[in-house]
Specification:
By secondary structure, the chain is mainly α. Helices cover 69% and strands 0% of the residues. The longest helix has 35 residues, at 2-36.
């Protein structure tokens, strides 16, 4: 039983690694286009790239939510070796993004919760949203929708306004 679970976990990790590699390649390609071909880049092309990335991320989500995929939440990651010295193998594996795996950076890389600053901002936004109340929020939504509709109307009919 244990061996079957381990094989299932290993297969899931391999599949996930493969899917993430596809996302990584698509991101590399898109970033290259943004940096080097921006003069020729059209909006439909940008949207196509976003659609590709979105589809790939949705595939990863489906893979993670699949009932056959073991829950990664139950897996524990424990760093076996921490060192303040540069690790060439680690740097190579991470494309020079993580040159060392030390006591200083492990808490950031293995964090399972947002940064404390982000948590505080989220808490403030939630408090502010709760304070506004549903009636005021609905009025603000209606006002914003009205403004957007008026703006869209002007953008769609520019000749009428000029005449």
């Amino acid at each position: 039983m244990q061996q079957r679970e381990e094989k299932q976990l290993e297969a899931s990790v391999e599949s996930l690694i493969s899917r993430v590699a596809h996302v990584k390649n698509a991101l590399h390609s898109f970033i290259y286009k943004l940096e080097n071909e921006y003069e020729r880049l059209t909006w439909p092309s940008v949207l196509d790239n976003f659609a590709l990335l979105s589809g790939q991320l949705n595939t990863i989500n489906k893979l993670l939510k699949n009932e056959k995929t073991p829950s990664f939440r139950n897996q524990v990651i424990i760093p076996l070796l921490l060192s303040p010295d540069r690790d060439e193998d680690l740097a190579k594996l991470t494309e020079q993004r993580v040159p060392v795996f030390s006591h200083e950076i492990v808490p950031d890389y293995l964090r399972t919760k947002p940064d404390p600053e982000v948590e505080e901002q989220e808490k403030q936004l939630s408090t502010e949203a709760a304070r506004i109340g549903p009636e005021v929020a609905q009025k603000q939504i209606q006002t914003l929708n009205k403004l957007c509709s008026n703006l869209l109307e002007k953008l769609n009919n520019p000749r009428d306004d000029r005449d």
